[in-house]
Amino acid sequence: MEFKHLIESLGNNLHTLMELWPLKLVSTIFLTVVSSNHAIALYVFSTMVFIDLLSKIIALSHQRRLDKGEPSDFYHSITGIAQAAKDQYIQSSIMKHQFSSKIILYMFLTLTAVCVDYFLMKAGYKQLSVFTIWGYLALTEFCSILENLQDAQAEYIYDLLKLINKNKFPFLKDSKNKSFKE
Predict the structure, then answer these.
(1) Alpha-carbon gap, residue 57 to 127, rounded angstroms
(2) pTM across the whole model
(3) How far apart are CA 91 and CA 93, in angstroms?
């Protein structure tokens, strides 16, 4: 008698499991894509671009404070962001354009690198294109953040910039093969 009850219970559970199967299938595919290495890298890169834009906003606020003869230390540059936006030093349309351009560039370069890696894999070579592109883009964003913080007079950034300028980290140079400003 218990065996019959077990079979009925399993049948009911299987029927319940099969309800809304298209929604469950789409949800599974979505979660798989969203949690893939490429998607996670996109989230991380988007975060870096956001930090870069935030550091640029702070640098623009700093420039506004300098232009107006106001105290222009890092703290005041952060607290002066709203006034800098009111005075048109910070324009959201330009910031949105920069953000979306970087994300589109990231996706374009990553897709291209995936294609190159596919061909390399088929030819029996190591697949390094995606990681090379990701590394380059991450370092480019990192350098841009450092430059923006330097422009905003963030005092603790100078020691790191001195290390870069002394060629202890030669891969952290700007795109024109020049070291950061001193």
Answers:
(1) 37
(2) 0.68
(3) 6
**Token pair for 151:** 């422009």
Rounded CA-CA distance 11/127 in Å is: 47
Radius of gyration of the chain (CA): 25
Spatial CA neighbour of 110 closest among 41, 51, 47, 174? 41
Report the C-alpha gap between 73 and 119 in whole angstroms.
51
- Block residue for tokens 């399993």: 10
Tell me which DSSP letter residue 170 carries: T
Query: Alpha helices, DSSP H only, in 19-91?
Result: 21-34, 37-68, 74-79, 81-86
How many CA atoms are closer than 13 Å to the CA of 66, on its beta-carbon side? 12
pLDDT tens per residue, range 35-78: 678 778 888 888 898 999 999 999 999 999 999 999 888 899 99
For residue range 102-149, list pLDDT tens digits in order: 888 888 998 899 899 999 999 999 988 988 998 888 888 888 888 888
Q: Which residue in 167, 173, 145, 134 sits closest to 58, CA to CA?
A: 145
Name the one residue in this structure whose structure tokens are 């506004």: 64
Answer whether residue 1 shows pLDDT above 70.
no
